[in-house]
Amino acid sequence: MRAAHQGETRVTVVVVTRDRCQQLMNTLDRLAALPERPAVIVADNGSTDRTGEAVRSEFPGVRLIELGENRGLQGRNLGVEQATTPYVAFSDDDSWWADGALTRAADTFDAVSRLGLLAARILVGEDARLDPVSAAMSEGLLTSGADLPGPPVLGFVACGAVVRRTAFLEVGGFEPLLFFYGEEQLLALDLVAAGWELAYVDDVIAHHHPAPVRDERRRHELEVRNAVLSAWMRRPLGSALKITARALASGWSQPAARQGLRTALRNLPAALVRRQVVDRDLEHRVRLLERAERAAQGGPADQGPTRRRLAPTTHVATVRRRG
């Protein structure tokens, strides 16, 4: 049993998990060893492997939210709601923060009052490879009128992000309709639309040791589904139609994409109820990043999407993050 101790009082770490007790114990060990000793909240999405019992036994200082069922990213929303610190860092059960990263993040937020979200540099695996998403973000394709601590971005990877709690709650957090996979860009757009800034900060570091994907086909299905739903919730009609058409084209050869489009269409009425189209300036920036990514992949600007382009999870709106 590790003794509870509070150090950095400005940041809470929220971890969402389900049926990965061993990985979670490793992550909690890593977080407990941080010099900041942050408050930690674990949201358990209905685990059946005695995860809750293990957390209570081994980490009594960790606040445990037991949802009783798999409610997807709602666990993050509940974690942020229950946090009492001004800033909240997200971890998955296979990721954690580097020594000093949370203090640097808090100092950055303290210094930039309009910063709503900080995207960290993510290092993947035992050999600490730079995540391709972090490499893309560091290129700084966007500009901002604000004095930011790093390049402005329009997306992030959740396990390497820190948010200002008030900004997160102001826009309603993650959209529950998306459940998981590709949920980050919608929140990023909502934060920017509300007047908050998002920035990539290279000296705030998160470590990610991805667990094997248990159901790759299901993951692909959700990525396609959420790309289409996100488009109809926030993008102008022309962009939403194009993204839907790309998903349809992908579905001709990929059964998972076809199923993802079907589930998206079933949920389209719920998405339309939530529809709040971004303004022209924000849409222009999103299209700029999409064109830059297509060019980087060697295709023409109007080329139809590959599977990677159907997962809007980063500032380029579409690069998948698994390392």
What is the arithmetic mean of pLDDT? 87
> What is the number of independent domains?
2
Q: Extract low-pLDDT stretches.
A: 1-5, 299-323
Instruction: Give the total of beta strands.
Output: 9
Major sheet characteristics: 9 strands, mixed
Predict the CATH topology of the largest domain: Spore Coat Polysaccharide Biosynthesis Protein SpsA, Chain A
Overall spatial form: globular
Provide the structure class: alpha/beta
Overview of this protein structure:
It is a single chain. The chain contains 12 helices and 9 strands. The N terminus and C terminus are likely disordered. It is globular. The chain has 2 domains: 198 residues, Spore Coat Polysaccharide Biosynthesis Protein SpsA, Chain A; 95 residues, no CATH class. Strand 1, helix 1 and strand 2 form a beta-alpha-beta unit. Helix 8 packs antiparallel against helix 9 and helix 8 crosses helix 10. Helices cover 41% and strands 17% of the residues. The protein is of the alpha/beta class. Strands 1, 2, 3, 4, 5, 6, 7, 8 and 9 form a 9-stranded mixed beta sheet that branches.
Question: What is the element layout, followed by pairings?
Answer:
Layout: E1 11-17, H1 21-32, E2 39-44, H2 51-58, E3 63-66, H3 74-82, E4 87-92, E5 95-97, H4 101-111, E6 115-124, E7 129-130, H5 132-137, E8 161-164, H6 165-170, H7 184-193, E9 197-208, H8 216-234, H9 237-251, H10 255-266, H11 268-273, H12 280-296
Parallel strand pairs: 1-2, 1-4, 2-3, 6-9
Antiparallel strand pairs: 4-8, 5-9, 6-7, 6-8
Helix pairs in contact: 8-9, 8-10, 9-10
